[in-house]
Amino acid sequence: MTGSSIERALEILRNGGLVAIPTETVYGLAGDASNEAAVRRIFEAKGRPADHPLIVHVATAQQLGDWASSVPPAAAVLAETCWPGPLTLLVSKAAHVLPVVTGGRDTVGIRVPAHPLTTELLTRFGGGLAAPSANRFGKVSPTTAAHVVADLGSGVDYVLDGGACPIGVESTIVDCTTNPPQILRPGGIGSEEISALLDGTLAGADGPSRAPGMLASHYAPTARVMLVDTAAEAAALAANSSGGWILDHSDDLSEYARSLYADLRSADERGVAVIIAVMPPAIGLGHAIRDRLGKAATP
């Protein structure tokens, strides 16, 4: 069932159901983060491993302290300056946070999304919504309501249709429990901006997988994905391959990010055998696009 009724979405969530919610990044598959049965349904619907943690979405930055046992200075700065927005903060979890949400870890990812429908939904819901991307685990993320329906079907009780997601790649995840903080997943806010906000005290991911999107293979279409550095390389490779299709918006990073998942899905729908993707420059949104393409190309 798809529509724009916040009342219907609230009714389903309060009764332990699952609602696909629009955000500025991708659509999320949301359930009441304080309802263990609802959270377990999220894992079942996605085919997601139980040890792969979920992100809790809340309405305001002031709710960070409701879900964290403590708020490090870096988390406070980033929450104040970047929320609502495409940023997830990993913090030590409060005692009430369910282990099923965190994959058994003592940390939890918190985010305040920037989408008017979901902001109203979260404000009226009052609590937190656990919400990974609304697709089958490891596959291409959804950026429209139609993508959600195609992927999950009856696995979701309601799809709150907020149109196409304007950013198109997931949130940046910053681990604020480490010193210095680490970027665990590049996303909608560039590492350069985060580093500037933290006066340069920022590091790349180090240590075990502990947040969504840290697996080597992820965001994968059915088609094989090959990576090249230039449009000339892509053209040469396409000329010498059967069924190759070139993906390249490297001159417009916002467009590349916004259309990336829709393009990957479209290639599969058209039966493309090989996607030849031109890697964008490693600046701003380019970090996230390079990360997603790299994971999509990993067997």
* Uncertain parts: none
How many DSSP-defined strands? 14
Q: Could you spell the SSE succession in H and E letters? A: EHEEHEHHEHEHEHEEEHEEHEHEH
Rg computed from alpha carbons, rounded to a whole number of angstroms: 19 Å
Helical/strand content category:
alpha/beta
| Tally of DSSP helical segments | 11
How many discrete domains? 2
Helical proportion?
A: 25-40%
Could you please describe the fold and organization of this structure?
- The chain is α/β, with parallel strands linked by helices and 299 residues long.
- The chain has two domains: 2-204, DHBP synthase (Alpha-Beta Complex), CATH 3.90.870.10; 224-296, Rossmann fold (3-Layer(aba) Sandwich).
- It contains eleven helices and 14 strands.
- The strands form two sheets. The chain has an eleven-stranded mixed β-sheet with strand order 1-8-2-3-7-4-6-5-9-10-11, sandwiched between helices. A three-stranded parallel β-sheet has the order 12-14-13, sandwiched between helices.
- Helix 8 links the parallel strand 10 and strand 11 (203-204).
- Helix 1 packs across helix 6 and helix 10 runs parallel beside helix 11.
- It is globular.
- It starts with a strand and ends with a helix.
- The mean pLDDT is 94.
